[in-house]
Design goal:
The structure holds two protein chains of two kinds. By secondary structure, chain A is mainly beta. Chain A is built from two helices and eleven strands, in the order E-E-E-E-E-E-E-E-H-H-E-E-E. Chain A has a single domain, classed as Aromatic compound dioxygenase (Protocatechuate 3,4-Dioxygenase, subunit A, Sandwich). In chain A, the strands form three sheets. In chain A, strands 1, 4, 9, 10 and 11 form a five-stranded mixed sheet that branches. In chain A, strand 5 and strand 6 form a beta hairpin. The radius of gyration of chain A is 18 Å and the shape is globular. Chain A starts with about 70 loop residues before the first strand and ends with a strand. Chain B is mostly beta strands. In chain B, about 5% of the residues lie in helices and about 30% in strands. The model of chain B has no long low-confidence stretch (mean pLDDT about 95). The chains are: A mainly beta, B mainly beta. Chains A and B meet through strand 2, strand 8, helix 2 and strand 11 of A and strand 2, strand 3, strand 5 and strand 6 of B. Chain A: InterPro entries: Intradiol_dOase_C, Intradiol_dOase_core, Intradiol_RC_Dioxygenase, PCDO_beta_N, Protocat_dOase_b. Chain A: It is an enzyme of class 1 (oxidoreductase).
Chain lengths: ~220, ~150
């Protein structure tokens, strides 16, 4: 088994964990082959549309901001590509504002950007999104708290136990050392695995910057 | 086989409502599914306050899957198949850096349940309501904390 790189539930620098992290011991069930946790969940939503992966084409006009391509592979820890798996993403717009009523900070909404997309991986586990680079945004965790730019990723494997929600960050962001969510991952190498790599080969001339980011989920039980 | 290092988990955050929930998400089985049950409850934090920004997912044999976000009162609901054993429940929320797994049982007759401390066992058993539905509350922390699974 690979080492568990995940953050602890209680990470007091991220204040919302203080009342939400369980305090009692967890119980380890024996997962026999019939365990419901090993079922492959069938996502019942409408089929993924051809343009669902392109967050810049969901409205009549083009969103403002730096157009980017984010692509990579979904693998399990055995190195196997996870095929035909659903990946959902969501993010703030270029000004750092979410199209969510809970985000009321004084940055403009973009009528041409909702910031939600999804796609299925191909036979090599590859996914690809076209979007705009999200902005940093302030939050109220502590004085002068700002989240580094990030894209939320929600990933399915072939067993419910493989379910993962995480965040992808952009290389060289000066906010990394100040962000208690990113820093909740204690191992620096594990933090680095949440940071995409700028890639000139993925970049398309006169059109969009390219980033590569592979996601590794636990292997099948 | 190579063993690749895993991508760490991060919180779902507070702003997923425009991306993850979908209208038919809570209805994991159709209304006419034989023995379908309605399941509902609240999610509470360590102060006993409702958690209005959690995302719950259920999974059952045959690939049955449901997804529901909590409302401003911390309430969720599902229509699910009557479980032969239990319903697997996964909880994401702002303030949860990694998700929580638990199980929803309709009665207490199961080897796993008997392996859980008697004083905490009831947190895994849904309570029948007069209207035929089942109530299952999730307490993330403190008094009556739900039993979560090391998975």
């Amino acid at each position: 088994m690979p080492q568990d790189p995940h953050p602890p539930y209680l990470s007091p620098e991220y204040k919302s964990t203080v009342l939400r992290a369980p305090a009692r011991p967890f119980v380890a069930p024996k997962l026999d082959p019939e365990a419901v946790e090993l079922v492959d969940p069938v996502y019942g939503h409408t089929p993924v549309g051809e343009l669902d992966h392109d967050l810049t084409r969901q409205h009549p006009g083009e969103p403002l901001g730096e157009r980017i391509i984010v692509t990579g592979r979904l693998l399990d820890s055995d190195g196997k590509p996870v095929r035909r798996a659903l990946i959902e993403v969501w993010q703030a717009n270029a000004a750092g504002r979410y199209a969510h009523p809970g985000d009321q900070h004084p940055a403009p909404l973009d009528p041409n950007f909702t910031g939600a997309g999804r796609c299925l991986t191909d036979d090599e586990g590859r996914y690809r999104f076209v979007t705009i680079k999200p902005g940093a945004y302030p939050w109220r965790n502590h004085h002068n708290a700002w989240r580094p730019a990030h894209i939320h990723f929600s990933v399915f494997g072939t067993q419910f136990t493989q379910r993962l929600i995480t965040q992808m960050y952009f290389p060289g962001d000066p906010l990394f050392p100040y962000d208690p969510i990113m820093q909740s991952v204690r191992d620096p190498e594990a933090r680095e695995r949440m940071v995409a790599r700028f890639d000139l080969d993925t970049t398309e001339p006169e059109w969009a910057l390219g980033y590569q980011w592979d996601i590794v989920i636990r292997g099948e039980a | 086989m190579p063993s690749l290092p895993l991508t760490p988990s991060q919180t779902v955050g507070p702003f997923f409502a425009h991306a993850l929930p979908f209208p038919e998400g809570p209805y994991a089985v159709p209304e006419d599914h034989p023995g379908a049950i309605l399941l509902h409850g609240h999610v509470y934090d360590g102060n006993g306050d409702p958690v209005p920004d959690a995302l719950l997912e259920i999974c059952q044999p045959g690939g049955i899957f449901g997804r529901c976000e909590t409302d401003k009162d911390g309430r969720y609901h599902f229509r699910a198949a009557r479980p032969e054993t239990y319903i697997s429940l996964l909880i994401f929320a702002r303030g949860l850096l990694r998700p929580l797994w638990t199980r929803i049982y309709l009665d207490g007759d199961d080897p796993f349940l008997t392996s859980v401390d008697a004083d905490r066992r009831a947190t895994l058993i849904a309570r029948p309501e007069p209207d035929g539905s089942y109530r299952f509350d999730v307490r993330l922390q403190g008094e009556g904390e739900t039993v979560f699974l090391a998975i």
